[in-house]
Write a structure and sequence with these properties.
Layout: H1 20-74, H2 79-90, E1 95-101, E2 106-109, E3 128-132, E4 135-146, E5 149-159, H3 161-196, H4 198-209, H5 227-278, H6 284-315, E6 322-326, H7 327-342, E7 346-350, E8 356-360, H8 361-377, E9 385-391, E10 394-401, H9 423-429, H10 435-445, E11 449-455, E12 459-467
Parallel strand pairs: 7-9
Antiparallel strand pairs: 1-2, 1-5, 3-4, 4-5, 6-8, 9-10, 10-12, 11-12
Length: 469
């Protein structure tokens, strides 16, 4: 059977990872998140790289201009004054310069200068970002050569605090935008996948609700659906038609065989009983053999009757003569019949009012006698059987025994056809394994319900519930 597809977004449970919807949603959402996250990281790296490239361009500009300007000024003033004038011309509120000779002594510097900049170690031509008093700087250094003579090192510090703040705001905005985009994308993906899987949900609904007698009537038609889903629906429809034909043939065979065997077996049973009654000259062994043959023949006839009832129910041909009855009176009649053939005491507890239901009287007798017979067979002779009648919103009939009981693990199977809790004991009691299956079928046909409460070695309670009138 197709796996049940979750019907809507609110029902998604991510611990059920075998769901196709969740797998598709999780996979596509993960790929989308990785894609958008990769783009965000790439943009972050690209913007930082752009910032560093811009500073490198500034450094290259200064590196090319600074020696030339120093040479010009040094023709008019001393070399130190020339360096200072050049630094003053290039400096502004964002760019700070200072020059150290080969002895690490500061010869010239910008008017606006932070001494903390000189405490930084390992400054070279590769720009690096540092934080000083919540101010971000890009710092690098380069050797200064005049007339092919190394005079010292020129250091450049560029304040990028504003750019850093702007960059941080941009990254935050980009992160929020990515989260929102991923969220919207996931919701859109879930809705789209839910819409795309609706044909599979429909197929699942059809498969869950179809009954055996309507297999051939199923029609699964889809419009504007993918070819794969159409092919699946067509294959399922053809399979159901084949199953329907097989089911009909099986039921017809069962009905025909049961009907054809019942009559000769009834005749055989009659002849055996007649021979047994008139067999004064039979030995004890012969009489025992005939008794066993009569018992088995009667048991086989009962089995065929049960099979015929189930076949009629499956084909929808079971005859029901629905009428309003007073349950109290009919139960007393049923108890009298059961006490007569079993010799067991059956107690009746009822409310002081008439309880009316609409059922087939003969079928209702069959149900109750079957359950009482079941209670008698599986409880010891020194125990009593209790029947309770109650009326709430419905009519409730409880049949209670104090017998061997049924284990909890087996209670959901006892209404299956041919199922026996104890195979050996069923053989001794003459059970066919169809009694409770017939009871459930008849109860359901009359709009009733049957439930069971049982404990091993403490007994069982079968409860019949019918709409009260």
């Amino acid at each position: 059977m197709l796996y049940k597809i979750l019907p809507n977004l609110s029902n998604i449970q991510f611990n059920h990872f075998n769901s196709l919807k969740i797998r598709l949603t999780f996979g596509i959402a993960l790929l989308s998140a990785l894609g958008l996250g990769s783009v965000a990281l790439w943009m972050n790296w690209k913007m930082e790289n752009l910032l560093m490239t811009t500073h490198k361009q500034t450094v290259n500009y200064v590196a090319n201009r600074f020696p030339h300007d120093v040479e010009i000024y040094s023709e008019m003033v001393s070399l130190e004054m020339g360096i200072q004038k050049t630094i003053n011309n290039l400096s502004d509120h964002k760019n700070i310069y200072w020059f150290q000779d080969n002895n690490k002594k500061i010869i010239a510097k910008s008017l606006i200068f932070s001494p903390q900049l000189t405490t930084i170690n390992n400054i070279n031509s590769i720009p690096k970002v540092i934080n000083i008093d919540n101010q971000y700087w890009i710092i690098c250094g380069m050797p200064l050569n005049i007339n092919n003579k190394l005079l010292g090192h020129l250091y450049i510090a560029q304040n990028i605090s504003n750019e850093k703040v702007l960059f941080a705001h941009l990254i935050n905005s980009l992160t929020i935008a990515n989260i929102m985009a991923i969220t919207i994308m996931i919701i859109a993906i879930v809705l789209y996948i839910s819409y795309s899987l609706k044909p599979l949900e429909k197929i699942c609904t059809v498969a869950e609700n179809i009954s055996a007698d309507k297999l051939k009537e199923v029609s699964i038609n889809f419009h504007n659906t993918p070819n794969e889903v159409k092919k699946l629906a067509e294959s399922l429809e053809k399979m159901l038609i084949r199953l329907g034909e097989s089911w009909e043939n099986q039921q017809q065979l069962l009905s025909n065989v049961s009907h054809e065997l019942r009559t000769p077996l009834t005749i055989v049973s009659g002849y055996l009983q007649s021979t047994l009654r008139r067999g004064d000259n039979l030995t004890s062994i012969q009489k025992e053999a005939l008794s066993v043959a009569v018992s088995e023949a009667d048991r086989t006839v009962q089995l065929l009757e049960d099979l015929l009832d189930l076949a009629r129910a499956d084909n929808g041909n079971i005859q029901m003569k629905m009428e309003i009855i007073i349950v109290n009176d009919l139960i007393r009649e049923i108890i009298a019949i059961a006490e007569q053939y079993s010799g067991r005491k059956i107690n009746l507890t009822e409310e002081n009012c008439d309880i009316k239901i609409k059922v087939d009287q003969n079928r209702f007798k069959q149900i109750c006698l079957n359950l009482i017979d079941n209670a008698i067979k599986y409880s010891s002779k020194d125990t009593e059987i209790d029947i309770k009648l109650k009326r709430n919103k419905s009519a409730i009939i409880e049949i209670i025994d104090r017998g061997i009981g049924i284990p909890l693990a087996l209670q959901n199977k006892i209404f299956e056809r041919f199922y026996r809790v104890d195979e050996a004991r069923n053989r001794q009691t003459g059970g066919t394994g169809l009694g409770l299956a017939i009871v459930k079928t008849l109860v359901s046909t009359m709009d009733g319900k049957i439930t069971l409460i049982s404990q091993p070695e403490k007994g069982s309670i079968f409860t019949l519930t019918f709409p009260s009138i």
